[in-house]
Amino acid sequence: MTTRRIAFAVMVPTLLLAASAAAEPAPDRSAPPPSGQPSVFRPPEIQKRTLTNGIQVFFVEIHKVPVVEVDLLVRSGGLSDPADRPGLANLAADMLDEGAGSRSALDIADEVEYLGASLSTEGGWESSSVELYVPVERLEPALDIMAEVALRPSFPQRELDRLRKERLTQLLQWRDEPRSLSAVAFRQGVFGASQRFGLPLLGTEEGLAAIGRADLERFHNTYFRPNNAALVVAGDVTPDKALPALERAFGNWSRGDIPAPAAPAARVSDGPSVTLVDRPGSAQTEIRIGALGPSRGTPEYFALTVLNTILGGSFSSRLQQNIREEHGYAYGASSRFEMYRSTGLFYAGAGVQTAVTDSALFQFMKELNAIRSPVSAEELSRAQNYVALSFPGDFETTGQLAGRVAEIYLFDLPEDYFARFIDSIRAATIDDLRRAAEKAIEPGRLEIVLVGDRSQIEANVSKLGLGPLRSLTVEDVLGKPPKV
Amino acid sequence: MRHLRFCAAGLWLFLALPAGAAAATLEVPYTLFKLPNGLTVVLHEDHSVPRVTANMRYLVGSGREIPGRTGFAHLFEHLMFEGSVHVPEGSFDKWLEAAGGENNGSTSFDRTNYWEDVPSNSLELALFLESDRMGYLLGSMSPGKVDGQRDVVKNERRQSYENRPYGLANETILANLFPPDFPYHWPTIGSMADLTAASYDDVVSFFKRYYGPNNASLVVAGDISPTEARVLIEKWFADVPAGPPVDPVTVTPPVLREARKVALEDNVQLPRLYLAWITPAAYTASSPALDVLASILADGKNSRLYRRLVYELQVAQDVSAYQWPANLASQFRVVVTARSGHTLEEVDRLVMEEVRRLREEPPTRRELDRAQNKIESSFLAAMERTGGFGGKADLLNAYLAYTGNPDFFNEDLSGHRAISPSDIQAAAVSYLPDNARVVLSIVPKGRTDLQAAGGER
Question: Average pLDDT in the A282-296 region?
Fold first, then answer.
């Protein structure tokens, strides 16, 4: 629609005009100024310590702002939910700060905020966490509350009832959000409702209704153990200074037997399939296309990272250029590999205007096919540079540092992972990318989910012949509206 | 953005005792100079990572738009990424990404800002790109580029407003809070009709009028040598000619004299109530008290509204309160989503009961300490990051624009720390009356019975 040639054509005359009109001599703008040598990246040193009960502590010092981030990471989450209690892990994590030791939910919030701290608790698919951010001067009193919350939650019935109601209301509100609907429908398509991964992390109405205090206690007792957890400390503090307080807070926590994790999720459908979730009157169609993907441990991790940068992981990526810039179908288009310890997902997507849903889908399929052919040397080097040269920027704040170190612990990465990252990215070849793409992106086996106005898009989408098309209602995806 | 924070290598910071009103001293050292063409430049060193940010702020936003062309400042922001005479279309992103850089831009009522975060060895590339679009944008502009970004922006409007639940709340509030001739009467995204009407000629005249170096300020911060950075900035920006002087916007201060009830039906499951008041301009005497008041009302489980509506009565799913600062007038907003079975009339009654309590009696010392300590920590958190939206460079530029002093961090924090319980009470009395506010109800289709009456209480 717009062409680059126009920009080139007018370059010379305008340059002359501008130069003669200006008071200062114009610098040479005929080419972008070359960058010098990038500084050699020295990853932050991770200092490992162990408390008396064996829990590992990863320290990263950064003495810029007098704050510290302390994260407790537990290597279990929603994938450990009992089959009839989906949502348990996520709710248990959310309940940690709703009462602990002798403190009530309101006491905890009051004390944490009085310290100017923030304390959050979160239950993911394969991990749970308690995260503290606090001015370093107030680390000790904040750690006491953090340990109480993480180790001695009281799970009050009243708060359980309250949070359950909050979650059921969230499930209700997903009906309003095209992107939530497409995410839920996509997981259902890939994994099916009989696997934990096929249901929302938040759980289901039936699962939430079944969860009692005893379930929360059992989950916490089973998985919140020092031999299934680690601490990450990043900030304006030294290990020697912080260790005594950490030992007081977490050193008495006792070990336990951790059940083996569930078997990796399997793909249920063999694709391709097109699922249309009807949302009459939608201004856009929310598109999500993808499949089961590699887990975080894949040897092709670096090739896939570069590949995705080229496909839909940067502004100059093929999808963004095609769908947004060239065709004007969407505000943005992207792709990602969402990787877990045990499994993974690949998907691409965009919110496109209703009238061009089929055209946009055609372009998506074109790009997903094309990415399996060798990329150009220019694309490879641009993507490698983008990932490698921006990597040091991930180590600026305490939150970023803690997050990167958590990645090492949760995904069992080698200790020299950061030091080798840039070289590993640069080592990926065009051939590596092609092989990784052929394996990870099979255009004939994709799950295609469209959330939009069926009456406007169904006929044109079927004409594309992308696979058997099934139409669902919002209720088919989310069930009947929960009773709240 | 709400407030600022800081401290960097070589800064000082004292934090007081655990708990209680703490005392941090924040300082962000900088160098300021002006080029002969009027471009104001601020430099700040922070060597914690080998990155540099260039943050350019043009003092033009949707508040300069004219009726019939709403959304234009933001559409123009998009066009700034489409190349300039020496930067072919598409190359702005390609070159930056090939150098390990990130970039973005945003538009508000009063300003448009752009930043590039790059490895320190690529500072010159960022300066070249910023200076080229400041000096040489029009030579490569074309009606085709305008059409292309018009489509993208219309899709942004569809995605972020029309296809999003409650997405039309903001423009409805603005249209009712401010009079039609006041520059904040319309949202930065603009209307579909006006986006359709925007022309290539509009682009040319807007650029000539507002995008000169004399209407902009550039902050370069991070892993820099100030001496070398200055040489590079002079090299790339000195030949950009100044634009015409830009006069400040003059307006009659807006006044709302009624509780204005508005209702919309939307594709939503739950009704949501929006209350909005006009408050004084950003960085004026009352600003810190209004920030602290917002925190006391809705930040945390013990805050007045959260505790009453969400925690105890459980009539609401969520509640938020915030001060939205801007040059000509700010806004104070309270937003509450009601649970099934509850009306917005009930919610409005409860919210205004709590507001009234604060008008009648100051908050406790403990409530104030909590709010102030949290605000102080948010200042510290902002000091951790140099680039991007809300990083130190962005804040230096914002402070410069609003107060004339880039390193206004400490004054800003002190202003928040100096607030007393009676200041909060006074702010609630002066700025949150029952009878001068917008009461917007967004209800599920066909459920007008759920909306608030919005009268005096």
Answer: 96
pLDDT confidence of residue A263 = 80
Tell me which DSSP letter residue A330 carries. Answer: E
Helix (H) or strand (E) holding A289: strand A284-292
> Is A424 in contact with A95 (CB distance < 8 Å)?
no
Task: Name the percent of chain A lying above pLDDT 90.
Answer: 90
- A446: burial class by Cβ within 10 Å (0-12, 13-18, 19+)? buried
Of the listed ranges A58-62, A437-441, B23-27, B316-320, the one predicted with least confidence: B23-27
Active site residue B77: yes
Residue in B77, B116, B345, B346 annotated catalytic:
B77
Handedness of CA A410, A413, A419, A420 (dihedral sign): negative
ipTM value, please give it.
0.93
Contact between chains at A392 and B51 (C-beta distance less than 8 A): yes
- What is the number of other CB atoms lying within 10 angstroms of the CB of residue A267? 17
Q: What are the Cα distances from residue A108, in Å, to A103, B301, B317, B381?
A: 6, 9, 21, 22
The domains found in chain A, sorted by start residue, are: 47-250 (3.30.830.10), 273-478 (3.30.830.10)
CA B122 – CA B49 distance, rounded (Å): 14
pTM value is 0.93
For the cut 80, the answer to whether the pLDDT of residue A17 exceeds it is no
Please tell me if residue A381 touches chain B, with a CB cutoff of 8 Å.
Answer: yes
Identify the pLDDT of residue A456: 97
Distance from CA of B323 to the nearest CA of A (A): 20
Give the Cα separation of A19 and A413 in Å (integer).
55
**Distances in Å between the alpha carbon of B279 and those of A204, B2, B173, B253?**
43, 14, 14, 10
Average pLDDT over residues A192-213: 95
CATH topology of domain B259-362+420-450: Cytochrome Bc1 Complex; Chain A, domain 1 (3.30.830)
Nearest CB neighbour to B121, from listed A37, A106, A329: A37
A6, A31, A334, B77, B141 from A2: Cα distances, Å:
8, 22, 21, 17, 10
- Average confidence (pLDDT) over B354-374: 98
Other C-beta atoms closer than 10 Å to the C-beta of B160 total 13
CA dist B74 and B63 (Å) reads 11
Cα separation, A334 vs B278, in Å, equals 39
Q: B211: Cβ–Cβ under 8 A, 6 or more apart, which residues?
A: B58, B60, B134, B137, B243
Q: Is A71 helix (H, G, I), strand (E, B) or coil?
A: strand
The end-to-end CA distance of chain A, in Å, is 50
Instruction: Reply yes or no: is the peptide bond before residue A481 cis, omega within 30 of 0.
Output: no
A255 pLDDT more than 90: yes
pLDDT tens-digit series, residues B90-148: 999 999 999 999 999 999 999 999 999 999 999 999 999 999 999 999 999 999 999 99
Closest CA–CA distance from residue A259 to any residue of chain B (Å): 35
Residue A97: which region, alpha, beta or left (left: phi > 0; alpha: psi -120 to 50)? Answer: alpha
Mutate one of A65, A134, A177, A277 to test the B interface: name it (highest B CB count within 10 A). Answer: A65
Whether the Cβ atoms of residue A424 and residue A246 lie closer than 8 Å to each other: no
Domain limits, CATH 3.30.830.10, in chain B: 31-237, 259-362+420-450
Q: Following CA atoms A235, A237, A238, A240 in sequence, which dihedral angle do they give, to the nearest 10 degrees?
A: -130
Could you tell me which CATH class the domain B31-237 is placed in?
alpha beta
What is the structure's pLDDT at B454?
Answer: 67
